[in-house]
Amino acid sequence: MIERRPFASLGGANHGWLDARHHFSFADYHDPARVHWGALRVWNDDTIQPGTGFPPHPHADMEIVTYVREGAITHQDDQGNKGRTEAGDVQVMSAGTGIRHAEYNLEPGVTRIFQIWIIPDARGGAPAWGAKPFPRGERSGRFVTLASGIAGDDDALPIRADARVLGATLKAGESAEYRFSDATRHGYLVPNTGRVEVSGVVLEARDGAAITGESRITLRALEDTELVLVDTAA
């Protein structure tokens, strides 16, 4: 089953400095049909104005993956980690027993991100943060694993969940395939840009596709497209 969730149907709020759209229930937006998808708890589509950002705030027991779509995000936390992650690259924070962090757009233009929260397999553990470049050219025509807690995904940023986050870029007319390890897995796919057909379902930019009961999906780009996919346990 592949359920298209149009961008226009998402919850969210425009705070001026932050225009946030929520694929799942978050903050003041609650939809009992969209609380989580497998272990995927949050997928926020955020546009952050220059010179603004999220002031210091706490998290615990969550794997937080930030995919930078445009601009850059600057991170600082109470564990001594600092870093700037720019468009196409990824940062991961394992909140563990608790971490306090801030994220700011210190760039001259807007920053756009997907922020993805995945429920960890177990509570606790020491907090951790990391970032890594993933050049878009290296994802051309195929999925590349960006973050993962699955054995064998050695080149990805580590997370503490039976899940992986993947990215791909496809030129118009190109196709790609992704195979789930079994049909009980839950997939969630969002094109950052362009249009794509996913096993017969057409997605516009920033639509979501909730996938379950599928052993594989086949994608065909109707326009040049950049995709992010999450594959989690049920």
- N- and C-termini, Cα separation: 14 Å
Provide mean pLDDT, rounded. 97
Helical percentage: under 10%
Query: Strand pairing plus helix content: what structural class?
Result: mainly beta
Rg, alpha carbons: 17 Å
Number of helices: 0
Lateral strand order in the biggest sheet: 1-20-17-22-15-13-14
Tell me about the largest β-sheet.
7 strands, mixed
Flag low-confidence runs: none
N-to-C SSE string, H for helix and E for strand:
EEEEEEEEEEEEEEEEEEEEEE
Percent in strands = over 45%
List the topology elements.
Elements: E1 2-5, E2 11-14, E3 18-22, E4 40-48, E5 52-59, E6 63-70, E7 72-77, E8 82-86, E9 90-94, E10 99-105, E11 111-118, E12 128-132, E13 144-148, E14 157-158, E15 163-170, E16 175-179, E17 186-193, E18 196-198, E19 201-203, E20 208-212, E21 216-221, E22 225-232
Parallel strand pairs: 13-14
Antiparallel strand pairs: 1-20, 2-3, 3-4, 4-11, 5-10, 6-9, 6-11, 7-8, 7-10, 9-12, 13-15, 15-22, 16-21, 17-20, 17-22, 18-19, 18-21
